[in-house]
Amino acid sequence: MVKEKAIDAAKKIKMLVFDVDGVMTDGSITYDEDGKEYKTFNAKDGHGIVRMNKSGFITAIITARNNGTVAHRAKNLNFTELYQGHKYKLPALEELIKKYNLTYENVSYMGDDLPDICILEKVGLACCPKDAVKEVCDICNFISTRDGGKGAVRELCDFILDAQGIEKDYIVAEGPNK
Hints:
6-stranded parallel sheet; Rossmann fold; 15% strand
């Protein structure tokens, strides 16, 4: 659901910031017998991030947990910034805004749960997956039609590209297997 003024807000976005659990994943956390944590990501969401990077947007993750799988995914998709272990996320966002000389209205943030509200209340485009908690949905001006880890990130990326009139790059493969 796109609330009033979301398209105008999307036109001003220069940086997309994401939570991980419940946004880039479905929120499931799997452990092996040694306590190693695993996450599952959506390939279509990843393609959306790649397209945003290729279109010149800053992409970032701010997450409360520390996880090697997240670091690997961020590196694989060429996220501009990765902040792990930030239970209170607002200082990390403020650091990003300062570093890239932006304002809150230049930022889109997608979160799904109560710890994300401190950021969602400030950014220009507050976003969440369809299955976010009610308190988050109530303050977001973009609510994906998809659940977290099931294409919500991709839907947001496409929405911003469309709002800014940026042609979608359908061929992103590089290297010998073009």
